[in-house]
Amino acid sequence: xxxxxxxxxxxxxxxxxxxxxxxxxxxxxxxxxxxxxxxxxxxxxxxxxxxxxxxxxxxxxxxxxxxxxxxxxxxxxxxxxxxxxxxxxxxxxxxxxxxxxxxxxxxxxxxxxxxxxxxxxxxxxxxxxxxxxxxxxxxxxxxxxxxxxxxxxxxxxxxxxxxxxxxxxxxxxxxxxxxxxxxxxxxxxxxxxxxxxxxxxxxxxxxxxxxxxxxxxxxxxxxxxxxxxxxxxxxxxxxxxxxxxxxxxxxxxxxxxxxxxxxxxxxxxxxxxxxxxxxxxxxxxxxxxxxxxxxxxxxxxxxxxxxxxxxxxxxxxxxxxxxxxxxxxxxxxxxxxxxxxxxxxxxxxxxxxxxxxxxxxxxxxxxxxxxxxxxxxxxxxxx
Length: 383
Prior knowledge:
This protein has helices at 16-24, 29-42, 54-61, 65-77, 178-191, 276-286, 298-313, 324-339, 361-364, 367-374, and strands at residues 50-52, 81-85, 90-94, 122-130, 135-143, 168-175, 237-240. The chain starts with 15 loop residues before the first helix and ends in a 9-residue tail after the last helix. It has 383 residues and is of the alpha+beta class. The strands form 2 sheets. The chain has a 4-stranded antiparallel β-sheet. A 3-stranded antiparallel β-sheet has the order 1-3-2. The relative contact order is 0.08. The chain contains 10 helices and 7 strands. The chain is flat, with a radius of gyration of 26 Å. Helix 2 (29-42) crosses helix 3, helix 2 (29-42) crosses helix 4 (65-77) and helix 6 (276-286) packs parallel to helix 8. It folds into 3 domains: 12-100, Orthogonal Bundle (Arc Repressor Mutant, subunit A); 122-269, no CATH class; 276-374, no CATH class.
């Protein structure tokens, strides 16, 4: 029987951002084949660069040696790879920063033309804080780069009255689509309603279903504000911010997007504000012997968000909640039940030659792991 490819026989690690940039770049078929060969011979062996001859590359990607040499020169001119003389041929490496990639051809004025790389929008909620007073602004943003690299802070409303160098921007949560991000923004603002430090005067929403009245949420700014800033449960990655384009305001929004105010404004589901950090804390508290969470990356946030919303709709104990408080209590009970399982906590005898299984947060918040745990598949411990 023919054996299929297995990861155990070797694999190539490549950053998703770099792979997506390559997929979106305007490369010819030969350029693509040579780039992938270089990745195979460098990243595939845990190296940043390698000394490769044109013949070596040609044998891997089934190209003519002369065409390989020509393609290497093209890629070097485009800054997609770096290339310098080596012992066997050329020492080559991938230029990971796609912002430096340029087209091989030059326009009539002689200036370099960038390769057009179309990346998917990233959507996120954020918080801008003035540490000296504790005042803060909550917003939503879409960008092409990773949110932690986005230097946007805005220059409208309250932000325009503050020195940009004094502000701190924090990414709260990342979303796959703009609509979810806007829902979360509204929920965050409602969560902090009445906080005298909140400086919002509007939400950025694109549908009437999200309309919200902030007339009583954000009091007028005074010359001196004292108090302690309150942060949402979601953990954040902070970084200094810089002046770029304008923040959204009621005045500069299109008429179709301006908010309706008054008693008819619709209410926003409080469950849309995901208490990621609090759920992780509950996991640590109730399952102290299981693997600890050290990084809350976008993938984990997405899984936790999906299970939080799924559990709210279930018709079984302890789930089926309608409030944030009820949801946190339900997940507390869930983790307490998990802690009683010998299998999930690594106390069951392992299979011969294998370590004992211990559930981590990724397993408990995965679709399969969550469902099986909820159905008591892992609580059939022998007495």
